Amino acid sequence: MRTPESIDALETQPWVLPSRRKVGLLCLLATESALFTIFVVAYLFYLGKSLNGPYPKDILSIPWLASVALISSSVSADLAERAFRCGNRGRFQAMLAVTILLGLGFLGATALEWKRLILVEHFTINGNLAGTTFYALVGLHASHVIVGLLLLTVVLLLSLKGAVASRQHERIQMLTWYWHFVDAIWIVVFLVVYVFGR
Amino acid sequence: MGSRLGLNSPIARVAAIATFLEGPALLAETHPVANIFKPLSAPAEAIHEISILALLICTAIFVVVGGLLAYAVVRFRSRPGDDTSEPPQVYGSVQLEMAWTAIPILVVVVLVVATLRTTAAIQNAPLPPDALQVRVVGHQWWWEIEYPGLGIVTANELHVPVSARDRRRPTAIHLESADVIHSFWVPQMAGKTDLIPSRTNRMWLEPYQTGTFLGNCAEYCGTQHAKMMLRVVVDTPEEFDRWVAAQKAAPVESPAAQQGRDVFLQTSCVNCHRIQGTSANGVFGPDLSRLMTRQTLAAGAAANTPENLRRWLRDPATIKPGCLMPNMRLTPTEVEQIATYLETLR
Amino acid sequence: MATTPSRTPAPAASEPFSLPTWLHGWVTTADHKRLGVMYILAGLGFFVVSGTMAALIRIQLVVPNNQFLPPEMFNRLFTMHGTAMVFLVGMPIIAGLMNYLVPLMIGARDMAFPRLNAFGFWIFLFGGCLLYFSYLAAPGLSGAGSAPDVGWFAYSPLTGKAFSRGHSTDYWILSILISGIGSLCSAVNVIVTVVCMRCRGMTLMRMPLFVWIVLVVAYLIVIVLPPLTAAQIMLLLDRFLGAKFFDTQAGGSAVLWQHFFWIFGHPEVYILILPGFAVASEIIPVFSRKPIFGYAVMVGATVMIGFISLGVWAHHMFTIGMSAMSNAFFATSTMLVGIPTGIKLFNWLGTMWGGKIRFRTPMLFCVAFLFQFLCAGLTGIMLAVAPFDWQLSDSYFVVAHFHYVLIGGLLFTIFGAIYYWFPKVTGRLMSERLGRWHFWLFALGFNLTFAPLHIAGILGMPRRIYTYDAGRGWEIWNLVATIGVAFQALGILFFVANLLWSSRRGARAGDDPWDAWTLEWSTTSPPPPYNFETLPTVRSRRPLWDLKHPSDPDWRVE
C-alpha cells in the first residue's frame, strides 16, 4: 500500500542528476591523467640512467617564455568563458583569439627550444634515455596543446560566423576546462622535467 | 618421437628415453618427469611445504563451498508438483556476511604469514662462503654456463655436487641474458627465476639426490623457446671433481681428426663457437670444447649420438627449425670430417 | 503513479524489404540496442576464428614431437589466439552487453553519447580487422613473419626491432591501440549514462546490480587502459624512432614494460570477469525466485575489487627477481582481492539457498559458472602464494587457471546472458533443447580440456611450447585436453544452430518471458527505438516485483 506522501514526494521532488557533458569530460580528463602519469613515471624512473650524454642538467634551460604564455592563455580562456556567459560576444571572441595566440606562442617557443636541442646540442629521442623520455613526455603534452588549439580555433571561427548560441555555454565551458587541464599538465611536466629532473 | 616410432607401451617408451638420454659421459639416473611435488633440493622443498599447505586449504574450501553449492542446487530446485508461489524473499543477513568475511580473512592471514616466511627464507637464504658459484647466460635458444672460480665454460648442462643436510654444498647461480628474457626452471631443484638482459638475478640450488634432472626455459623467448631445455646433473663429490678435472684438462690432439679440425677452423664455425686450445673464439654460439661430455645436442633438442651430430651438421633446421645456426652447406665429406673431429672433444 | 509497462502502438504497414536500406540502417545507427547487437555479433565472429586457432594449437600438442604445425606458425597462433580473445572477443561482447542493457535497465532512452557509441564500435572493428590483416600485409619486403608472434603480453626486448623484425609486432601494437580507443569510448559512455541518466527514483543503491558492476568495470577501463596505450606508444617510438624506452643495451629496462603492461593487464582481467559477475547477479536471482542476497555487500565487494585490483599487478612478475619485500607485498594484496571475490560467491549461494530454482538454460550456464569459478579462484589463491608461483608461473597450471576464469567464468555467463536476453532482443525464445545440448557438450569439453592441464603444469610443462618430448609425463594430459576440444566445437555448433534457428522459429517471448523484475522486462520484446513509451519512476530495486506484488512490494523492506 503506497502512502500518499511518498508518492507525492517522489513525483514532485526535483530529480536532478549531474550534467552529462561535465561527467563525460571529467572521465576524459581522468583517462588522460592516467596516460600522462605513465610517461611521468617513465621519466622519473630513467632519471640519471642515461649511458651517455647530453644530459638534461647541461642543456635544458627553464622555458620561461613558453610557460608564461601557456599560463596566461589559461587566464584568457577563463576570461573568454566568463564573457560568453555574460553574453559579451565580442569580448568572448577577443579573449579566445588571445588564448589561441598565446597557445601558438607556447608551441613556437617549444619548437625553437627543440630546434636548439636537436641541432646544436644533438639531444635526440634516439640518442639516450634522457632524450627518449624528454621528447616523449613533452611531445605528448604538445600534442594535447595542438588538439586544444584546433578546437579553440574551430569554435572561434564558428563564433565569428555567428553559429554559437548563448545556450551552448556549457560546451564552451567544457572546452576551457580541457584547456585548463592541458595547462595543469604543463605545470606537472615543468616541475618534473625542468625543476626536479635537472 | 614417441608414438610416431610406434612406441606405444610404457616399457618401450622408457627404453626409448633411456637410449635418448644416454650419453657417453656420466650415466646418472635420469628423472625425466619434473614433478614439482617431488622436490629433491632445498629451495624446492621449502616451496613444496607451503604449496601443500595452500593446496590443502584450497581443497578444503573447495569441498565445503562446492558441497554447499551442490546441496543448494539439489535441495532448492523447483519440482514439477510445486505451486507457483514465490519462496520467502530474503534480502540478506548481516551475521552471515560478517561470518563469511571473517573466515576468508583468517585464511588469508594464515597464508600471508606462511608466504612471507617462505619467501624470505628462500630469497634471503644465507649461503656458505664456499658455495659453488655458477654464471648462467641465456641466449636464443641455449644456455651458456660458466664456473668463474673454476675457469670452466660449457653449455646447456649444469653439473653440481650433491649436498648433504649436515654438510651443505649449495650452488649459487647468477642469471644473465644476452638477448631477450628467458627463465631457468628445473622444477625438482628450485622455483624458476628469469634471465633478464642488463640485470643479474640470483638463485640457488642445494640438491640432496644425485641424478640428471630436466628443466625448460620458462619464458617465451622466440621461435625455439620449446627446445631450449635444461639439464642439471647432480654428481657425487668424486664424480663432480672428476668432471671438473675433465673440463679443465688440456684438449686431446687426435691425428685422425686433424682434417676435420682444419675444416672447422677454416669455415665460419669459428665466428660463433669457441674450442679451447684452438683459434676458435666465437661467443655467439655454445662453447664446444667438451661437446662429447654432454648428454644432448642443441639444448636438449636431440640426444648426443653420432647420427644426430651428423644430422645437425648437415642442416640444423631438421632438428631445431628456426634456430640461429644457419645451414652451413657442408659437403658430405666435410660433415663426416667435422663430426669426427667434434667427437674427439671430450 | 507506479511504473506502467509500456506498450508500443501496432507497427505501421511495412514497406517492401530493401537490402541497401536495411544495411544503411545498421551501418549508420547510433541506437544503443543495434550497436549492442553489432558488438556481440562481431565478438562472436572473432570468437569462432580465435577458437579455431586454439583447436589448431591443441591438435599440434596432442602427441609429443608432432609435426602438424611448424614452430613459427604455432607461435603466431597462440599470440593471435590470446590477443584476439582478450581484445576482440571479451571486450566487445562486454561492451555489447553494457551498451544494450544499461539504458534499458536504468529507464533511459539511449546512452549519453550515441554517436560516440557508434564511433567506438567502428573503431574497435577496424582495429580487429587490422590485427588479422597482418597475416596478409606484414611479410612485406623484409621476408619476416606475418602475424605477430610475441605472445599476447608482448614482453620486451623480444618485441624490439632487433628481435622482432618486419612489421608483425607493429600490427599488434597498432590494432590493440586502436581498438582500445573503442573500449575507452564505451567506458566513458557507460559512466556518464549511469551517473546522469537514471530514471526518476533510481538512486545508485536502487540500480540493478548489473549496472553497478559495469559502472565499476567502466571506471577500471578509464583508469587502466591508458597505461597500456602509453606502453604501446613507447614501444612504437622504440621501434620507429629508435627511442630507448625498452632498449636494454642503452640502459632501458625490459622490466619496465612488464610493470606498465601488468598495471593494465591485471585490472584488465577483472574488467573481463566482472561483467560475468554482473550477468550472474541478474540471472541467478530470477531463476531462484529470490532477490540477490546482500545487495549492499555485493556493491561494496565490487567497489573494493575495483580498488584493490589496481595494486596486485606484480603477481605476474614474481619470477623476475624482485626483492622478498616486494614479492610479499604483491602476494598479500593478491590474496586480499580474493576476499571480496569470495564474498560474492557466497552471496550467490545465499541467493539460491531457500529458493525455487528453475534450471532453464541461462541458469544451467550460471550454475556451471559458480563451480568453475570456484576452481578458478582457488587456483588463483595458490598462484598468489609467491613461492608456489615460482613453480607454477609460466606453466600449464597458469594456462588452466586463466581458462577456468575466462571460459569457465566469463564465457559461460556470456552464454547465459545470450540465452537470457535473446528473447528481449529478438522477441523470440531460444530453443531449450538445443540449449541443453550446447550446455552439456560444451561443459564436458571445456572441463575435459582444462582440468588435465593443471597436472601438466605441475609436472613441469611450460607455456608456449610448440612441441615436447615423450617421457616427460605430459602425453596423457595433452591427449585428453585435445579430445575435449572436439566436444567444445560440437557445443558451439549447437549454439550457432540455436541462434540461427531461434531467430526465425523461436517461440514468441512476449515482454517478460522469465517473470523477472528489472526495467528491461517492462517494455516490449524487442524494445521500440525509444525504449519506453513513458520513462518510468521506480521506488525499489525490483520495480516489476513491486508491480506484480502490490501487497508485498520491495520498497517496504528496503
Structural category of chain C is mainly alpha
CATH class of the largest domain in chain B: Mainly Beta
Poorly predicted runs of chain B: 1-7, 18-27
Q: What fraction of the residues of chain B are assigned to beta strands by DSSP?
A: 15-25%
Q: Overall mean pLDDT score of chain B?
A: 91
Number of domains of chain B: 2
Quick recap:
The complex is a heterotrimer of chains A (about 200), B (about 350) and C (about 550). Chain A is mostly helical.
Please describe the structure with a list of short key phrases separated by commas or semicolons.
heterotrimer; A: 198 residues; mainly alpha; Four Helix Bundle (Hemerythrin (Met), subunit A); 7 helices; 0% strand; globular; B: 346 residues; alpha+beta; Immunoglobulin-like; six-stranded mixed sheet; five-stranded mixed sheet; 8 helices; 13 strands; elongated
Describe this structure in words.
The complex is a heterotrimer of chains A (198), B (346) and C (558). With 198 residues, chain A is mainly α. Chain A is built from seven helices and no strands. Chain A has a domain at 60-196: Four Helix Bundle (Hemerythrin (Met), subunit A) (Up-down Bundle). In chain A, helix 2 packs parallel to helix 7 (169-196) and helix 4 runs antiparallel to helix 5. Chain B folds into two domains: 33-70 and 94-249, Cupredoxins -  blue copper proteins (Immunoglobulin-like, Sandwich); 255-342, Immunoglobulin-like, CATH 2.60.40.420. Chain C has a single domain, classed as Up-down Bundle (Cytochrome C Oxidase, Chain A), CATH 1.20.210. Helix content of chain C is 66%, strand content 0%. Chain C has helices at 19-27, 32-60, 71-106, 114-137, 168-196, 209-241, 254-288, 295-308, 324-352, 361-384, 386-392, 396-426, 432-458, 475-505, 543-548, 554-557. In chain C, helix 3 (71-106) packs parallel to helix 5 (168-196) and helix 10 runs antiparallel to helix 12 (396-426). Chain C is globular, with a radius of gyration of 24 Å. Classes of the chains: A mainly alpha (198), B alpha+beta (346), C mainly alpha (558). At the B-C interface, helix 1, helix 2, helix 3 and strand 10 of B face helix 3, helix 7, helix 8, helix 9 and helix 10 of C.
